[in-house]
Every structure is written in structure tokens, then in C-alpha cells.
């Protein structure tokens, strides 16, 4: 059969992994096609992930900051929330970015084909779209089909009151009571949005801390603030049953601190994401896929089939946009003939909660588990002039150093803007910086970023200031 479309490289999926791979490949002179099942580019991150969630979190922060202003003698009235306008704002933000991507694709002459791709051979895809199926023949392929929310089978997903993160971002209404199942990044960000907009929020988490993966001390200021805000958090708690009733979703729990049953107006299930690698008939191209839908790759993002690459959420954790983007560019460069490989030492993680929690590299608990010889420099924001000035002193910055070399190998920050502040630590780790380098770097005063320099000085025993 004659191919309907031929290209040097095809990218399946247009998320941060896919569009970066496609744009880089096109910039390197390859005839590029992006296949995406939805009508807009941008994948989960731009359409139903990073970007809309941050737009809503900004609205939540404004509500909170207006209430907080009372502390310094400024009082605003009760917030009046126009849900349609808020939704329109979020959609505008998303639209601006996805349209921007479409323009950038056009400028690069990367062709966009809408449809669902499946392999039919090692060099062919069948693309099912509105107008029927097309056969695409490629020299190289980048699989960037991402991931999707795990749907716990204990819930009746036909009931619209049971939501995954995509449904929660739709902001259909502000439920009086909301149960969030899962205390990870996505669950806690959405909990913050709905709490600020007026819902009574309950969070249940199976493990013994929120934000599993982060050090326990980083999570504590968040837990304290949630308590003050009236968010009910139940750790080591499992959902065991659920029944959709007229008056709400009746949920059964196993846990020490929660009643056995309770009814909620809505439930958000945020218990993780599953990789989409198993849905592409990859075996027809000879590509290995694990039982859980992940596609194994080497340091050049190649699958076991050398001309087929895989990137982003479907190659493994952490499932983060900035990781996908780097992998996408790398795959394109390798496919174009450049001799490159994955060299990143660390990938930062950020929870855009209030306060934000950010961590990078080796965490303190991981160092302990592995028996690494480390030292820690910790700077409490209670001693930061800037943090005092904005009345947000609950944060702190800590750096983890190799005891022998004094090289920084990890770091964590909790506090407002922690997500923006973590980049300096990531850079320091990538550059092999030592505590003295970080302490000797002149940071602007008064900023929260100073806390990174101070934490290094605390470790070195050279700290002199209280700012
Ligand atoms: P995706 O973005 O998942 O894109 C894959 C694309 O492939 C999709 O558009 C899909 O439609 C398409 N596709 C799948 N199969 C096919 C097929 N067979 N044919 C054609 N197209 C197909 N990460 C961060 O770093 N920071 C954040 O703040 C953040 N916030 C998040 C908030 C939420 C609510 C969620 C859900 C996620 C968030 N993430 C965040 C995670 C981030 O969105 C993902 O890590 C990122 O989108 C992964 O990019 P990707 O390119 O691997 O795939």
C-alpha cells in the first residue's frame, strides 16, 4: 500500500516532550510530522495540566493574599467568585499558549496531522482521524504519547461527581464538600484551588506523609498551614468503597483518624498517572513495552529498535514537563545524527501548593537510606528580612552536601516562590559547586534567594548575618 504521508521523522503526541522533539528536529532540517489525537497542540501540560492548574492557583493565591492583608491593616470584602469568568481566564491562558505552539509549528514547516496513531510496521503508522485512516511512512519516530490519570476502580466513573484532574480543572462548580484522594502534587494543588474558592476539603493519603518523595520536614509547614485553613488531612488512610447516592458520594475508609463512612458532594481522585506506551501496537514495530505501559530507552532515548525513540511520561518517572522537554530535544538531535546523550544530573520537582515545596537531587532521607556521608546547611526564613516583610516566615532552605568534598548534591525549599528558587540549587549541582562557591556568590538583598547562600554558609560555619 502506498503511504499517504511520508516524512523523515514523525512524533506521536504533542505534549512538552513531543513538541520540543518536533521543533528541534525541524530546526535541524528534518522533514517533520507531529501526530496528535486532539485538535490543539501542547498535550497534558498545556491543555489539562501544568498551565491551567497554575492559572487557577494564581486566583487562589489572590483570594488568600487579600484575606492576609488584614494582618497589615488593609481589609477587602468577602471575595465574590464568578466561576464563568475564572474559567474563561484559565481557557484564555491555555488558548494563548496552544495557539502559540501552532504558529511555531507552522513557522518551522512541521506538519500537524490530527488523529490517533498506531504502529503497523517498524516504519509505518496508521493514523485514524475524522476523515478516515491514513498510512504514514517514516525514517525515524519519537513516541511521546504521555500518560493519563489512574482511575481507581472503587469509584463509579460514569458519575460526573467523581473527577480526575482534567475534570477538576473544568471547574464545573464549587462543591460544598470535596474529597481529594491522594496527597501528592496534583491532588494537593487542586485541594488548594477548591479550598480557596470556598469548598470544605478533605484529603486522604495512603502513605504516612503528604507529597511522598519530599523530605518530611519540607512538608511540615504545608501541613500546618492546611490545618489553619481548615483542610482535613488523613494520612495512612485508604478508600475501601464508594457509592453514588442522590445526596452525594458516600465513601468508606480504613484509617485511624477518619469516620468509617462520609458523604461528599464531589470526589477528586489523584492517585497517580499511568503510561500510554501500551496503546500504540508498539509490538508491530518490535518496540518493547513493560507491563505497566512504560517504554524502556537508553541514554540517547532510543528504544530497543534503534530508529524509534521514546520520551516523556511514558519512559518513566518523574513524570514532569521539563524532563519531557529535555528528552524531546535530545531524541531529535540524536535522530538528526548528532552524537549526544542524557547528561542531566538532577531534575527538580515542585509542588505549587501554598507554601510551595521544591526539591532537587539527593534528599536528606534518601542520603540516610543509602548511608551517604552528608552534611546539611539549613536556613530558616524566620531570619530572612524579606520573608518577615511579607509575613511568610514559615519556610526554610536546606542544602545537602557531600561531607568529604563539600559539593552540593541536593536541596529542598519550602516557602512562597520555592519553585522559582530551586533552580539555583539545580544549577549549583550541575556545575559541581561547593558550599564555599555558593556562600561566596553575592545574592541580592533582601530576597528569598539569599537563603540559598545563607544555607551554604550555615553548613560551612561562616554565617554571620541575620537579615
Ligand atoms: P503529554 O503531555 O501527556 O502529551 C502526550 C500527548 O500525546 C497527548 O496530547 C495525547 O493526546 C497524545 N497522544 C497519546 N496517544 C496518542 C496516539 N496514539 N496518537 C496521537 N496522539 C496521542 N509537570 C510539571 O513539570 N509541572 C507542573 O506544574 C505540572 N502540573 C501538572 C498538573 C496536572 C493537573 C497534571 C495532570 C500534570 C501536571 N504535570 C506537571 C505533568 C506534565 O503535564 C507531564 O509530565 C507532561 O505533560 C508530560 O509530557 P509528555 O510530552 O510526556 O506527554
Count the E strands.
22
Strand content bin = 25-35%
The N- and C-terminal alpha carbons lie at a distance of 72 Å
Main sheet properties = 7 strands, mixed
Radius of gyration over C-alpha positions, nearest whole angstrom: 24 Å
Helix content: 25-40%
Contiguous uncertain segments of 5+ residues? none
Return the structural class. Answer: alpha/beta
Overall spatial form: globular
What would the average pLDDT be, to the nearest integer?
97
Bound ligands, named by name, code or SMILES = flavin-adenine dinucleotide
Keywords: Disulfide bond, FAD, Flavoprotein, Lipoyl, NAD, Oxidoreductase, Redox-active center
Family: Belongs to the class-I pyridine nucleotide-disulfide oxidoreductase family.
EC number: 1.8.1.4
GO molecular function: dihydrolipoyl dehydrogenase (NADH) activity
